[in-house]
Amino acid sequence: MKVPENEVKMESSDEDDEEDEVWRKHYSSKHRILLVGEGDFSFALCLANHFGSARNIVATCLDSQDDLERKFSDGIRNVRELEERGCLVFYGIDVRNMSQHFFLRTQRFDRIVYNFPHVGFLFREDSFCQIQLNKELVEGFLRNARVLLKKGDGEIHVTHKEGEPYNKWELVEEAMKAGLQLQETVPFCKNDYPGYQNKRADGGHSNAPFWLGDCSTYKFKLNQSP
């Protein structure tokens, strides 16, 4: 999506302020929300449907628009619905350098959300190389998200699979290195987000779901320690 740099702002209007606040689990219609690595954008659409609007949401993916259409059966349709509800959608956003993006760098968000970060299935999931690549992805995301986070009550949420080999990504340790501190870890339940479809997003079965198992949402805040 091409957005003139000086023409688009995410600012609350009087109309927004007068609307009743609506919550979906950890997320409020009053939050400015950045969703990254969105796959087929079904998580963003779930929030938008529940809020009744997507004017408070910026949703991004790494794919181009053509790749999104090729990889996901509902991707383009979901994006169209989001845009009709006022969501800003950006393609080709690499979370490892997103803080330099011409629009995102002008914003500060209450919630920055990355569900199931993954570089793609390049090696065996439990191989050293695959683990290191995923650690680098998470590290790059956290360092960039920190720049875009609103000070005070802003939170970065990473939903992540538990157990081997995912614990070797050392998510909490990487967050500490990026100047963040863990607030809490809560179980993730897909049923809390009606319509959300977790997708493999890579390879010949990109539109297929992946097995979730035990998952948690890790909530991080800026480290306020001196």
Automatic annotation (TrEMBL):
<dbReference type="Pfam" id="PF10354">
    <property type="entry name" value="BMT5-like"/>
</dbReference>
<dbReference type="GO" id="GO:0070475">
    <property type="term" value="P:rRNA base methylation"/>
</dbReference>
<dbReference type="GO" id="GO:0005737">
    <property type="term" value="C:cytoplasm"/>
</dbReference>
<feature type="domain" description="25S rRNA (uridine-N(3))-methyltransferase BMT5-like">
    <location>
        <begin position="34"/>
        <end position="200"/>
    </location>
</feature>
<feature type="region of interest" description="Disordered">
    <location>
        <begin position="1"/>
        <end position="21"/>
    </location>
</feature>
<dbReference type="GO" id="GO:0070042">
    <property type="term" value="F:rRNA (uridine-N3-)-methyltransferase activity"/>
</dbReference>
<feature type="compositionally biased region" description="Basic and acidic residues">
    <location>
        <begin position="1"/>
        <end position="12"/>
    </location>
</feature>
<protein>
    <submittedName>
        <fullName>Uncharacterized protein At4g26485-like</fullName>
    </submittedName>
</protein>
<dbReference type="InterPro" id="IPR019446">
    <property type="entry name" value="BMT5-like"/>
</dbReference>
